[in-house]
Amino acid sequence: MRLVIIFFLFFSISINAQEKDDILIYDNFVESYYNKKNEQPILVYNKINGRVVDTLYNIDDKYAWYKLAISDSDSGWLKIKNIQRLPSEYKNYGYENHWVKSSDFLINVDVYNPNKPVYLFELPSIKSNRIHKIDEHQSVNVTEIDGLWAKVKFTIDNKIIEGWLSFKNQCGLPWTSCPKYD
Predict the structure, then answer these.
(1) What number does CATH give the domain 107-171?
(2) Cα-atom radius of gyration of the chain, to the nearest Å?
(3) Most CB atoms within 10 A, among 41, 86, 92, 128?
């Protein structure tokens, strides 16, 4: 039931956002969401190691979150296309070309078909070496991007796993399924 309510809210916001020329799900940017378990606010900077221009505090509503569309990355920093609060009390913060530190921004690895395994790659290319197979849903930290590839990092059994995740297996929303671009 809660999932139905969340999808209804998201659909309602989607219609409202389209009227304002906002984009809710980008098919040309890596997207991620802010880890609600982190009690630290998101600090938005005017440039890398620059001045803080805004502080976005964690959202109390357990069904709302911050979503980030990422246009670039550099040494632990993510360049913002936009930041949005979704789905309740929708707000588009904008901040295009501003920066945030990459810690605590997550992507869900979307293993939607057991016959189509998800792999992490050594480099941002399907022609590079496969370095890890992901068999089930996994939340991963985004550390950098290269085009539509996300370099991700997570821990399994005290072992740090790090590699490049293809765009088609990324879900920048805190549920387990996103639109597919096969």
Answers:
(1) 2.30.30
(2) 16
(3) 86
Beta-carbon contacts of residue 38 (< 8 Å; ≥ 6 apart): 58, 104
Residue type, 105: F
CA distance 160 to 53: 33
Identify the band that residue 83 occupies on the pLDDT scale cut at 50, 70 and 90. Answer: very high
Q: For the range 18-24, what are the long-range contacts, defined as Cβ-Cβ under 8 Å and sequence gap of 24 or more?
A: 20/92, 22/84, 22/92, 23/69, 23/82, 24/84, 24/86
Structure tokens at 32: 């991620």
Mean pLDDT calculated for residue range 162-173 = 93
Q: Which residue has the tokens 């005290």?
A: 158
pTM summary value = 0.84
* d(C-alpha 67, C-alpha 33), whole Å: 4
Q: How far is CA 11 from CA 23, 32, 35, 105, in A?
A: 13, 19, 22, 23
Each domain of the chain, given as residue ranges in start order, spans 2-104, 107-171
Tokens matching residue 64:
């709302």
